[in-house]
Amino acid sequence: MDKTPYSAIINKVRREKGLTVEDMERITLTRNITLIEAGTEKLNDMQINLFANVLGLSAEALKQ
To answer: Which of 11, 19, 6 is nearest to 63 (CA)?
Structure first.
């Protein structure tokens, strides 16, 4: 399975912002952040928009 285009970006920006996996799970109400960052769990468009908003990015930046 190919990694999702946003997996590494989410991990990198989350760490840069000083957010833990638990912080992201609480803020986004999404479980399995570790799997999302590993690229094995996919996000739908609404979740991509949410993660982009939380991380201060555009949805397009996450999709590239």
So the answer is: 6
